[in-house]
Amino acid sequence: MISKRLNFLLAVPVLAMPLPAQVAPESLTIEAAIRLAWTDQPGLQAGEAMVDRAKAEAGAMRDLNLPTVSLSAGLVRTDQPMMAFGMKLNQARIAQMDFNPASLNKPDAITGIGGGLTLSQPLYTGGRITAARKAGGAMADAEAASQSHRRQQVALAVVQAYFGAQVAEQGMVYAEDSLRQAREVERFVQARVDQGLMLQAEGLRIRAYRAQAEAGLVEARQRVASARSGLALLTGKEVAPITLATSLKAETGPSAGAIQGTRGDLQAAKFQWQAALQGAKAAQGILLPEVGLNLGLGTMHNTWSTGGNWSEVSLGFRWTIFSGPDRRRVSSAKAMERAASYHLRWQEQVAGREVSEARLAMESASARIKMAQEAVEASESVRTLRQARHREGLLPLTEVLDAEAGLSGARTLLLNSQYELRISRAQLSLAQGQPIEGVQ
Q1: CA 333 to CA 327: how far, in whole Å?
Q2: Number of other residues whose CB lies within 10 A of the CB of residue 414
Q3: How far is 234 from 329, CA to CA, in rounded Å?
Q4: Measuring CA to CA, how many Å separate 145 from each of 37, 50, 192, 344, 436?
Q5: pLDDT by residue (tens digit) across 252-284?
Q6: In degrees, to the nearest 5, what angle opens at C-alpha 119 toward C-alphas 117 and 122?
Q7: 299 and 396 belong to one structural domain
Q8: How far is residue 144's CA from residue 53's CA, in Å, rounded to a whole number?
């Protein structure tokens, strides 16, 4: 009695303790998947580095019109006649004896410590600096626009992988249902065969059908694992235990008549053409004169306390009247500008076709969904009816198997049509330059 009471008292605190809350599986929406890919995808990270490089190059082009300041310093020891005389002159210690021919021809080695500060400022370069600055800015804008388009392409790939995984999982559910139905029919047929009411061939036929259903389930599971791993590769996140929360049937994305936005690849092509145009202008500037200003300060000492100082101001003019290679470079730059112009035109034509194709795909998928839904409903009714009539001995087994195959085909058509509608919406967003799945 005491033992029972003790067990009861020990059990009461356990019963009074709250049960641990059941941990709900983590979920992942399509928006979160796209943002993960944008953050962790190595290809996009490389693209961001390319954008930074292009911006740095553009900054270097903008600074071409700034002055260049250089500082030099050094220690020199020489007995070379001209340099020795020049060093003494720079050190402000030329004396009468330094003009002695013997000293001029064979001077003693002398040492000098000197330095200089020089400022160079281009004043006119035939428009090369202005054109280079504009070309650099256009190339930076082109790289940024290309990166924006790459982000949208990655978003499209995420949409394909995300909803592809959902389609694979639903296909696995259908495969499990087909296998369950096959096993029930097999049990019924085998019982009839054992009773002598059906031929042995019927039992072998349904056994083969059940084996095919098992193989189909194994294949469906493999497709699920493959689709999930592809999504994990894009997002950089293990998604095997995660619930994909966004429904395949959600009506998001642009309609077939949506207004076209700005495509990153078209913007990049336009900026590349502008950069090529400015590059041609910069090449033509090579054949024009240039003017520059130089300011200089210098010093040369033979000791720390004695030496000479000087300054220099020069305004220079230079014009290369003829240069065969420079003229060829001008022709090359003009050809590059024409190529960029044709490329832009081609990209615009491709973009127009992609919009048309995406719209046609949406319309086709929408129509197939309605037909597939009717086919699934009718096929489910046919399967139920034929199974019942087969159990009553009114239909052969082949009719039941045909109904099962018809239902499987209708389900496949419905899943594929729903997937194609969702993907074609994303493709239309990409073609029209709009955010895919509304993700900015």
Answers
A1: 10
A2: 21
A3: 43
A4: 18, 12, 70, 14, 16
A5: 555 555 556 688 899 999 999 999 999 898 888
A6: 165
A7: no
A8: 11
Relative to beta strand 110-124, strand 290-301 is antiparallel
At residue 135's C-alpha, the angle toward residues 142 and 317, to 5°, is 170
Residue pointed to by tokens 């495509």: 263
Same domain, 90 and 78: yes
Using one digit for the tens of pLDDT, what is the confidence trace for 73-95? 999 999 888 888 888 888 888 88
138 and 255 fall within a common domain:
yes
Cα(272)–Cα(340) distance, integer angstroms: 7
Residue 426 shares a structural domain with residue 316: no
Q: Are 235 and 43 in contact (CB under 8 A)?
A: no
Let me know if residue 241 belongs to a domain. yes
Tell me if 404 is assigned to some domain: yes
- Could you tell me where the beta strands, DSSP code E, fall in 65-135? 68-78, 110-124
The CATH number covering residue 90 comes to 2.20.200.10
Question: d(Cα 239, Cα 30) in Å, to the nearest integer?
Answer: 12
Domain interval for residue 81: 67-124+288-322
- Model-level pTM? 0.78
Residues 296, 333: one domain?
Answer: no
Q: Which residues contact 347 (CB under 8 A, 6 or more apart)?
A: 265, 266, 269
The one-letter amino acid at 399? E
Final residue of a domain: which of 266, 297, 322? 322
Identity at 371, one-letter amino acid code: M
The domain tally of the chain equals 2
Task: Report the CATH number that the domain containing residue 60 is assigned in CATH.
Answer: 1.20.1600.10
Q: Is residue 206 part of a domain?
A: no
295 and 281 together in one domain:
no
Give residue-wise pLDDT tens across range 360-404: 999 999 999 999 999 999 999 998 998 888 888 888 888 888 888
- Are 81 and 151 within one domain? no
Helices (H) and strands (E) in the chain, counts: 10, 6
Neighbours of 366 (CB within 10 A): 15
C-alpha torsion angle, residues 217, 218, 222, 223 (rounded to 10): -30
